Amino acid sequence: MGVHRESIKLAIKDDLLGWFKTVNAKEGDMLSPEWLYDVYLPTLRAKEQKAFEEAIGEMIVDGIVGYVSGRKPTYRLTKKGEESMCYPFFVVRP
Hints:
The chain is mainly alpha-helical. The chain has four helices and two strands. The protein has a two-stranded antiparallel ribbon. α1 (3-22) crosses α3. The longest helix has 20 residues, at 3-22. The radius of gyration is 13 Å and the shape is globular.
């Protein structure tokens, strides 16, 4: 996998945790399906949507978010995710 794809995935992870951070989310809080499906995902191009699937899968495996089924799948913040909001995934270095 290329460096560019990895940077896209890191940016996506940072965006998702950034949303949780803006609403001051705590463990167990849900990612807004309206924001995810109506605001965020439509801004992604096809390759970025594929990277989103990989990024969210990695976040689940890493224990940052948990999968919640429903009409449209969504995700809940875990304790580890709440703690990781203090540290961005994507850091730009000079």
